[in-house]
Amino acid sequence: xxxxxxxxxxxxxxxxxxxxxxxxxxxxxxxxxxxxxxxxxxxxxxxxxxxxxxxxxxxxxxxxxxxxxxxxxxxxxxxxxxxxxxxxxxxxxxxxxxxxxxxxxxxxxxxxxxxxxxxxxxxxxxxxxxxxxxxxxxxxxxxxxxxxxxxxxxxxxxxxxxxxxxxxxxxxxxxxxxxxxxxxxxxxxxxxxxxxxxxxxxxxxxxxxxxxxxxxxxxxxxxxxxxxxxxxxxxxxxxxxxxxxxxxxxxxxxxxxxxxxxxxxxxxxxxxxxxxxxxxxxxxxxxxxxxxxxxxxxxxxxxxxxxxxxxxxxxxxxxxxxxxxxxxxxxxxxxxxx
Length: 338
Known about the structure:
- The protein contains ten helices and 20 strands.
- The protein is α+β, with helices and mostly antiparallel strands.
- The chain has three domains: 2-69, Uridine Diphospho-n-acetylenolpyruvylglucosamine Reductase, domain 2 (2-Layer Sandwich), CATH 3.30.43; 74-226, Uridine Diphospho-n-acetylenolpyruvylglucosamine Reductase, domain 3 (2-Layer Sandwich); 234-337, Uridine Diphospho-n-acetylenolpyruvylglucosamine Reductase, domain 1 (Alpha-Beta Complex), CATH 3.90.78.10.
- The strands form six sheets. A five-stranded antiparallel β-sheet has the order 6-7-12-10-11. It has a four-stranded mixed β-sheet with strand order 1-2-5-3. It has a four-stranded antiparallel β-sheet with strand order 13-19-18-17, with helices on one face.
- The mean pLDDT is 92.
């Protein structure tokens, strides 16, 4: 177990914000994790679990313990004629798991290609993109309860997955560490082109010529054309959630803003594109100091270099206020603020 004091987190958050943690511990084995949870250090300090730092904004130094769970591994634990059950350690990089599944032609998570972060963080956020969410392929997960050191297994129902949300962002926030995630993937060809930009990109490809690798590569192409590389320009992807309106609310909203970008979420609700709302408020490509809304996608707030977390947060709150004043819609943060 590697323990560091007054440790810079600049390389551990994709915004590239230069803050320090009082303690930083990189956990590389399950036994190290058990030892940490029984130590006086964890009992006398507050702590934060950190994956790849791709969905977090630090606004100040962290006066506690940053725990980075780096345990890796991918294993097949069961198999039928049509399905494969794959277990991945919580510290595994999500994209490495997707690459593994695509290479083996196990269908179900190829639309989630190039999403940054770790496997253990994926259920917390119920990550999603291009018509697919983690819950669609989820089987169960294992976690270690911090207060007792006991192993707890959660089914899909028990995780209470919602749009960019789960029980681990609410009732169980910072109460357990996700150590393993198990997915049920299809060995039978199943291509999901329900998302318009993806289906548009592949509209000229015959169904028989569609492959899991082609879908994955196309998702990557689309993402890279819209999203800035955090290694070049600090960001955490989408900063805001797409707001959801009931049918009645949507009808009234569309009367006022007929050109709004939206998509139907269910029989009873619609989602309005947060990027459209932000762009209409004049923020797309607008720079304020060292931060701003990305020129290709207003939903993304970027660090042009040297921005503090507080600067980024101030811009995010200004965007929230302007969208609320103009459209009467409050935008929730997708990024966690610390």
